[in-house]
Design a protein that fits this description.
The chain is mainly alpha-helical. The chain contains 2 helices and no strands.
Length: 64
């Protein structure tokens, strides 16, 4: 196998794993009324933009 083939296989596996851990479309995104709280939560879970889903907040006990 060439190194290009190995690289393509590794990339396919990584993309498959990343796709597996994404939230399901059936989840509704979380909304925040307080922009400061939203900023703190986003920084705590390292999602700086885009929607936040409840499953991404699992285990979050404090925004700091």
């Amino acid at each position: 196998m060439t190194s290009v083939s190995v690289l393509l296989i590794v990339l396919a596996l990584i993309i498959g794993i990343v796709g597996y851990v994404q939230p399901t479309p059936s989840e509704d995104a979380v909304t925040f009324t307080d922009p400061n709280l939203e900023t703190a939560v986003r920084e705590a879970i390292a999602i700086l933009d885009g929607p936040i889903y409840p499953s991404e907040l699992d285990g979050l006990t404090s925004p700091t």
